Amino acid sequence: MEHVALNNGVRMPILGFGVYQIPPEQTERAVTDALAVGYRLLDTAAAYGNEEAVGRAIRASGIPREELFVTTKLWVQDAPAQENAERAFEASLSRLGLDRLDLYLMHQPYGDVYGQWRAMEKLNREGRVRAIGVANFYPDRLLDLLLNNEVTPAVNQIETHPFFQRAADQALMREHGVQIQSWGGFAEGRNDLFTHPLLSRIGAEHGRSVAQVVLRWLIQRGVVAIPKSVRAERMAENFAVFDFTLTDDQMAAVAALDDGRSLFFDHRDPAAVARLGTVRVD
After folding, report:
1. Of 48, 110, 114, 138, which is the active-site residue?
2. Tell me: domain 3-276, CATH 3.20.20.100, correct?
3. What Å distances lie between residue 156 and 114, 137, 198, 271, CA to CA?
4. I need a surface site. Which of 72, 76, 111, 118 has the fewest CB within 10 A?
């Protein structure tokens, strides 16, 4: 497994397993299978409703805690955000059955962002979480946060896939020491990703699937990826991407697929703010 070094020296696997949209009743089995394949980075969130199942799979695996890299996320908190964020962290930790996290992300750029971040900085100082970061922050919000706080986010998890590549975002993050992480790496199959002619041709040239090509493309860009599946054979396929390399011409060909726009929603859109920024997670 390849790793990336975060801005505080913590090492993070470049490929992990995400559990977004996996129902709680299927999550324990999925995580158990993923750990058996070899995944050691697990990505969940309070908003996913499956932290308890992730925790059960971790405990049942027998894998030493220090070999795992566990991420969960803080949902939007009402004032007093700092106090509420600490309470939310404790609730996530309890559901996971852990005494610390490897990475804690602010899930949305909404609410009292500064109060939430101060709580996360405190948890980081206390050693309750090894690294803290954000998700879904566009460059302006990310820059504002890092210029006006003590701790620079270690990670920004954002929509990143062949049709929305975020090259300029990644360049800004690199300049400031923030690691880019992809969600939606397969674009949930939109734009016929899994049968796309270019991606299929590149896959055929390497004897690989389109999914493997996309993951290899992300990894070669230095993007941490967290593909999701509930099928053990697909998990194994997604994991087998470290024994081939895309050529420069192939990387350039994939780069030409970028539309420069989200296939899901823009976090700067008032409708998205109204939908996400007003929802609360217990």
Report:
1. 48
2. yes
3. 16, 7, 29, 22
4. 118
